Amino acid sequence: RVDLIFGSNSQLRALAEVYAANDAKEKFVRDFVQAWVKVMNLDRFDRK
Fold first, then answer.
1. Residue 17 in this model has a pLDDT that exceeds 70
2. pLDDT digit string (tens) for 27-36?
3. Domain boundaries, given as residue ranges, for the chain
4. Fewer CB within 10 Å of terminal CB in the chain, N or C?
5. What is the number of other CB atoms lying within 10 angstroms of the CB of residue 4?
């Protein structure tokens, strides 16, 4: 189960705790958008 993996892996748990903080909404959105743009650009063969 995914929830058990996040609890048992120290690196994943640390990331989950950062994003679960009360004041982390903007950080989550900013990081998500950056990751989304990166993934979308990896699929573009017209860019170098």
1. yes
2. 999 999 999 9
3. 2-42
4. C
5. 8
State which H helix or E strand residue 2 sits in. helix 2-8
Question: CA torsion, points 10, 29, 33, 17, in degrees to nearest 10?
Answer: 0
Contacts of 12 (CB under 8 A, 6+ apart): 5, 6
- Candidates 3, 26, 1, 29; CA nearest to 16 is 3
As a whole number of Å, the CA-based R_g of the chain is 15
For residue 40 the two structure tokens come to 């979308």
Rounded CA-CA distance 22/28 in Å is 11
